[in-house]
Each structure stands twice: as C-alpha cells, then as structure tokens.
Design brief:
five-stranded antiparallel sheet; 319 residues; 10 helices; alpha+beta
C-alpha cells in the first residue's frame, strides 16, 4: 500500500472506530509507529481535523466526513453484487434498502464506469436459493435482527433435528446473525444452557421479542473456523473415483484431507455424529468410515434398514 492510500485508509479507520492508538494503526497497516506519527502529522497539515489524546489515541473532530469517494470498476462491482446478495437474503426492510443502495451507487458512477460495471453484471450473477423465503421465516429474521440492535431478549420454541422430544421453549439473548452455507444461525446466550449456543433460524417458531434487555459482553466476537467444541474426530476413506467430487464438495466439518494411496482420506471434527451422518450416507458405497466404531455401526444399521425397505417393495411387486 502506498502512502496516499494509507492516509486515506487511516481516515476511514478513524471514521469507523472513532479512536485508534498509534500502535493499533501501525499493526493494521503493517508499518512502524514512527511512520504512523508522520502520517498523522501529514493529515493534520492537509486540513484533516485530528484530536490527539495522550494514552487514548487519535480521533476525528465530531461531524467530519470525507468528501464523496470515487470507485474503481472492481470496487463498484463488489458493492453492487453485495447489495444484490443482501436484497436476496434479508427481510423486506433490508431488501428495499439494498435495492435503493444499488440504484444510488449506479447513479453516481461516470458513464464509462457504468457501462463497464453493467457489462460485468451481465457476466457475473450471485444466485441464492429461495427456500427460506416463507413469510414466517422472514418475520423471524427481522425480529432477531431488531432484537440484536435493541439488545432485547427473545423467547421461542426450538426443535433440534435429532431430538424426538417436543420443541423446547427457550429464552435467549441474541448476540449475532451468521449466514453459513445458505443457512441463517442466531448466536445467542441461552438462559437454559447458561452458555452461548447457535440456533438455526428455520427451526425457530413462535418467536417474540421480550421487554427484558441485556448487555452483550464487550469481548464477544464471531470466530471463523475455530470450532473448539467439536471434539469428536471422524475419519472416512473415499474410493479413488470419488476423490475428485469430494474435493469439489467438501463437508463444512472437514479439517484435513490427503491422498491415502487406496483413496482420499478425510478427517472431520463434529460435536456429535448426527451432524455428519446424512452427508456420509449420501456417498453410498463410495465411502468407508474408519473411525469411530460407533459411527460405523450406525451407518451399517442405516444401510440394512434401507436394504430391508427396498427388499419389501421388490417382494410386493412380485406378487
């Protein structure tokens, strides 16, 4: 990153986070603190209204905004594709906002850039399934989003996939929404489990926002790819002819994979076997579970039950 780009990025960082220490900025932009001091001096000399507080860092005078930004073709395209994704995956309020943002971005682009972006948009399309478009699901998504913003506890009935009991009623403090593999999850502190849990939104029914409020922990963050609660290791060996397709469509729970000579050896980590059972069954006779033995037994039982079902149908047809 050259110095001009870094100076602009520093101002954007201060606008987004209000106050930043020199060491934080140095770490963000991978430069020395001395370089940051020089950059701040250059910004001040150019007219950017900076406030420096010993021990607290730098901030901008309240009310200061950068003039309108210009976008490159790639930047404009990413913004427009992002607004298209938001329009498809959020509730009606954000759907409308995303479409409006799309129009505003397109409107301020120079004619030549508009043509370039329009041409790329015709060549690139982000399409998402509409399976979660049911009115009840969209209402739930909207309620959870608002509860997160307003820090209000929610109450709902929840049916876990492999729990045969009746849906359980939960009170939870919603901290975040996460979109993983086309599925929305609510990350929330569960009052029943006294811990943070992930609730799949399309398994939530009869949700209502309570008057009760909560304080989200200041150290809360959404962690990517660090599933510390997935302690069960599973190893599965796929035959050589299937290896390519497994690499093309790996499981979300996969943590390692390697050529094993006899096929493609995949290691997965899950919380419980039910999370991976259906995915493994989908590969049929092309996969052999090596561990744990309990999962091998369950797959054998499922295969036997399927065989019995079709055997009965064959007998019925013969008569």
């Amino acid at each position: 990153m050259n110095r001009i780009d870094r100076l602009l990025a520093i101002v954007l960082q201060l606008q987004a986070k209000r106050r930043q220490r020199a060491e934080d900025l140095a770490a963000t932009f991978e430069v020395s603190k001395r370089t940051i001091y020089r950059d701040m001096l250059a910004l001040a000399e150019s007219g950017v209204p900076l406030i420096s507080e010993p021990g607290k860092g730098y901030s901008l005078v309240e009310g200061y905004f950068l003039p309108p930004l210009s976008f490159s073709t790639d930047e404009a395209l990413m913004l427009l594709i992002g607004s298209d994704f938001a329009a498809q995956n959020f509730d009606a309020q954000y759907h409308s906002a995303a479409l409006t943002a799309n129009r505003k971005i397109s409107a301020v682009l120079p004619a030549k850039l508009q043509a370039d972006v329009a041409d790329l948009q015709r060549s690139i399309r982000f399409i998402t399934p509409t399976k979660h478009g049911a009115p009840e699901f969209l209402r739930t998504l909207q309620q959870v989003r608002r509860a997160i913003i307003q820090r209000q506890t929610v109450r709902f009935s929840y049916q876990a996939r492999f729990n045969t009991d009746s849906p359980s009623v939960r009170d939870a403090d919603p901290y975040a929404l996460v979109h993983v593999a086309e599925v929305w999850y609510m990350v929330a502190y569960c009052h029943v489990r006294h811990d943070i849990r992930n609730f799949r939104l399309n398994r939530i029914v009869q949700l209502r926002v309570l008057d009760q409020t909560f304080v989200r922990p200041t150290n809360f963050e959404i962690k990517d790819g660090d599933p510390t609660d997935r302690m069960l290791m599973i190893q599965a060996l796929f035959d050589a002819e299937t290896a390519r397709w497994v690499q093309e469509s790996p499981s979300y729970y996969q943590t390692a994979a390697e050529d094993h000579g006899e096929g493609w050896l995949v290691t997965l980590h899950v919380r419980h076997e039910d999370e991976i059972l259906q995915w493994l069954l989908g590969w049929g006779a092309h996969v052999q579970v090596l561990a744990p033995d309990s999962l091998r037994t369950r797959i054998a039982q499922q295969a036997q039950a399927t065989l019995s079902l079709y055997a009965e149908k064959v007998v019925e047809n013969e008569f």
